[in-house]
Each structure stands twice: as structure tokens, then as C-alpha cells.
Amino acid sequence: MTVSLSKGQKISLAKESGGALGRVTMGLGWDAIKTKGFLGFGSKTEAVDLDASCVMFNESGAPVDVIWFRQLKSRDGSIQHTGDNRTGAGDGDDEQINVDLNAVPSTVKSLVFTVNSFTGQTFEQVENGYCRLLDASSGKEVARFNLSVQGPHSAQIMAKLYRHNGEWKMHAIGENGKGRTFDELLPQIAAHL
User: Fold this and answer.
1) Is residue 41 part of a domain?
2) What is the band of 91 on the pLDDT scale with cuts at 50, 70, 90?
3) Is the CA virtual torsion 171, 99, 129, 57 positive or negative?
4) Number of domains comprising the chain
5) What is the C-alpha separation between 44 and 34, in angstroms, rounded?
6) What CATH number has the domain bearing residue 135?
7) pLDDT in tens, 46-86
């Protein structure tokens, strides 16, 4: 059963998936902007480059590593980005970040996922934008966050996976921001650690 997330909501990943999750995938999807021409002629699409990133934080809230389009794999190997989609073309997830929760070093307290519009369009211009969390073993969607109604900003702190009493939990942050890359969001992220 998929949980449609709302801003500020917290869920236990083990309870939502029916058992402890070992591997999760954060999927990001969107469509290119379609413009209509005069009397139906000359319609075109405008590429949108949204970027999914994952920042790993230690207990004291300091960044340990970042997985994004310029570094597709964490230094410890526990997190892998599938690559940069620069257009939004195609169906389904345009970018994915795969996380082996069991391999994330114990010194890492939380993982924060962000979405940035590298090409600068605001999310109110982006069509069919979403972010979702899947149980990577079964392919079952555990949670989904809708981006399409998010308004005139160019970035969002989507969600945080964090360790609590020996289990991984998820906090749907959903905080709007501005910036082309994750590093411009770091001051805002600090408030959620």
C-alpha cells in the first residue's frame, strides 16, 4: 500500500513495507514543458533538467558524502545514482538513487534527498513532477510525494531517511527552496537534522 506523503509526515519504513527494508530506491520523475503553437501549429517541448541528490550526514549534522550528477556513487559504495536525465523525456522515473541501507556506515545518522531545477525553471512550470520511495527488492512503492503543485521555487528538500532506535524511518520534509544544486540548500537542510 502506497502512502501519499504530506509535508512534515513521518513514517516507519519497516511498517509501511511490511518488514525491515534493506534496499530502497528514491525515484524522481517529471515531463518536459509542452507549449502550444498558434492554432495548434508549431508546438514544442522545453527540456527541464531536475536533479536528484542525496546528502549523507553524521550524528553531529556534518555532511559526510554527497551523491549527485557529479558523483554517482558514495565513497563507501552504499548509495548509487543511476545518472543525470537532462530533459524529462520518457515515462516513469527519470532519475533514481539506490540505497543499500544495510551497507550505510553506522557513523551516518541520516540521508537527505533533494531535488533541484538545474535549468532554473520553477516547479510550477514542471509537469507531472513526483518523488517516490520504493522497496528495491520487491519494486513495491512505499511512499510518494507530488511535486506538481509546489509553486514558484526551483528546489525542494524532499525527505530524510534517518536511524531511530535501530530502524530506518522517513520524514517527508517537503520544504521549498531556491538553487541549482544541493549545496545551495545546505543551510535549510541543517534545520531538519
Assistant:
1) no
2) confident
3) positive
4) 1
5) 6
6) 2.60.60.30
7) 788 999 999 999 999 999 999 999 999 999 999 999 999 88
The answer to whether 7 and 173 are in contact (CB under 8 A) is yes
Q: Which three cell numbers stand for residue 37?
A: 503553437
Altogether, the residues listed in the chain come to a count of 193
pLDDT tens column, 31-54: 887 777 666 666 777 788 999 999
Q: Which domain holds residue 144?
A: 3-33+58-190
Contact 63/113 with Cβ under 8 angstroms?
Answer: no
Cell of 158: 524532499
* Burial profile 54-71: b = 16 or more Cβ within 10 angstroms, e = fewer: bbbbeeeeebbbbbbbee
- pLDDT > 70? residue 150: no
How confident is the model over 169-192, as a mean pLDDT?
90
CA atoms within 13 A on the CB side of 12: 9
Q: In the prediction, which pLDDT does 82 show?
A: 96
Q: By the 8 A CB rule, do 70 and 132 touch? A: no
Task: Output 145 or 131, whichever has higher pLDDT.
Answer: 131
Residues near 129 by beta carbon (within 8 Å), at least 6 away in sequence: 28, 29, 30, 31, 50, 115, 123, 146, 147, 148, 150
- 22 burial class (0-12, 13-18, 19+ CB within 10 angstroms)? middle
Q: How far apart are CA 86 and CA 7, in angstroms?
A: 27
